[in-house]
């Protein structure tokens, strides 16, 4: 038999044996015999793989034959073995990239993410250290500088796309980082986003189901600090939800977007609750937002939105099951204005109560003294400007603040938190960049010394 035919038979046998072996070993010993329909699908899949491999082998054989006719009549055993190895490698590459080949997924999948190292020095002890959200009381940390370095903000994500038609587009997203706890050198993964999206383009209607950002207060400033001013004037977090979005064209240049969602209520625990207090309420929270997008400066449009949420918790006060209802709500406004091609301005403001689960209240939701439990009320906001005057350089500046307006009775409770920041980011290319950020944090306490911190942070980032 000709050596090329021997190679075809050998490659086919290896693929068939591997596929059948994986099917056999994937089944438990007591598994039921596959149905005729399942066997037929397996045969079709194997035939497809063999056909693709034969095509690759034939192409390699032709190239080998041309090389023989142009150079010499025979090849050595070593050259033949090398050619066979290259054919196997090419076959594996082609079989994993051929459209419709069911090796990895039946839809288009895009890997994305970033690798990020943060190194920061704080003049005062901030909470938590790897990132800043507020400063510890003054008398406990005067002169207590700290240095932290972490790669926990490294992210990995997958974007899934398809099937797609004119009437319906389907997609999904899965994303994680490494702020899930564990040791600093062995951090645990943490789920950030996991959702599917159904979109009807002609109706400008979409339905999202899964975990992602809140509907309320959807903007974030461009900070290198991981918290993007959470607990200091910026609210909004990620949580499981079912969201409906509807677009409406008001005129040629103006668009109205309406959003409504049912979300998991993230509550507290009193020591008597069977679960968290949000779960014990028996129904989800609701969020809504209305936004108008319209031309303001130049070609890019501005967006102004108003939003709000409402949720309830059932808080057990003793082991006998006595309880009271706690309420969480917020009223919010957001704005994003593209002034020109290199300057964008963003801002948000809010007021509400029991906002700990929304990164508000400076991390405080309820005030509990025995059976006396009340919601903590707060108001705040932030402003930031992003400037990119040239391709390589980006500058961000901004300020934020949050003030507790009611419900605080305990000494040591945080009553206000504020931050002023500025950073510069230099892009080596479209993937690699380095940034430096300087921020000033000030946190005030009831019955305790204020906390102050100047934070200097350097970040190395590779996006893919």
Give your account of this protein's structure.
With 464 residues, this protein is of the alpha+beta class. Helices cover 19% and strands 48% of the residues. It contains five helices and 23 strands. It has helices spanning 3-26, 36-70, 77-97, 138-141, 277-281, and strands at 108-122, 126-128, 132-135, 146-150, 155-164, 169-177, 182-183, 186-187, 190-200, 205-213, 238-249, 255-263, 285-295, 301-316, 323-338, 343-353, 366-369, 372-375, 377-387, 393-406, 414-427, 432-445, 448-463. The chain has a 16-stranded antiparallel barrel with strand order 1-5-6-9-10-11-12-13-14-15-16-19-20-21-22-23. Strands 2-3 form a two-stranded antiparallel sheet. It is globular. The chain starts with a helix and ends with a strand. Residues 1-31 and 95-103 have low confidence and may be disordered.
Low-pLDDT runs:
1-31, 95-103
Q: What would the principal axes of the Cα set say about the shape?
A: globular
Q: Quickly name the level 1 CATH class of the largest domain.
A: Mainly Beta
Question: Strand sequence of the main sheet, in spatial order?
Answer: 1-5-6-9-10-11-12-13-14-15-16-19-20-21-22-23
Mean pLDDT: 85
Series of H and E elements: HHHEEEHEEEEEEEEEHEEEEEEEEEEE
Would you report the number of β strands? Answer: 23
The CATH homologous superfamily name of the largest domain equals Porin
Q: Assess the beta-strand content as a share of residues.
A: over 45%
CATH architecture of the largest domain: Beta Barrel
Q: Please outline the major beta sheet.
A: 16 strands, antiparallel, barrel
Helix content: 10-25%
Structural class label: alpha+beta
Q: Please give the domain count.
A: 2
Report the C-alpha radius of gyration, rounded.
29 Å
